[in-house]
User: Fold Sigma-70 family RNA polymerase sigma factor from Streptomyces triticiradicis.
Amino acid sequence: MTRGEEAALHAFVEGRRPALFRSAYLLCGNRDEAEDLVQTTLVKVVLGARRHGRLESLEAYARKTLVNTFISGRRRFWRRERAYGEVPDVAGRPVDSDTGLMVRAALAGLAPKQRAVLVLRYWEDLSVAATAQVLGMRESTVKSHTARGLAALRAAVREEYA
Assistant:
């Protein structure tokens, strides 16, 4: 890579880190895990850009890498155990009844692919076709995951307000 390409890659990493972190946090629901996910994603993006030369769309490559890294991390056996910085005082329900906290808690209860579809569709504001392309699935599968994920979120919100 030339110095100009390296500088552009560095600028991309610095500029996209906050947006990738927000998406990663919505996927993971945990700040530390989201930071690890973003770091892993950016390392893969930089290595991929250096290995393949100039990638066509660095933004799409980064988004796809983020989601794929998240999903593959959820498949691992050791990921079933969760580490916490502080032990919560109360188990189960969040103490704060803020809607954002409730939605994030409900989002964390979804299957990883449903969560990825909802984050890409409604947080990243991607179309069904773009989401299908990022995740490597058919549009009908994206629509199915969207419908089931939204139904599960609605049920969790109704349960919270009941």
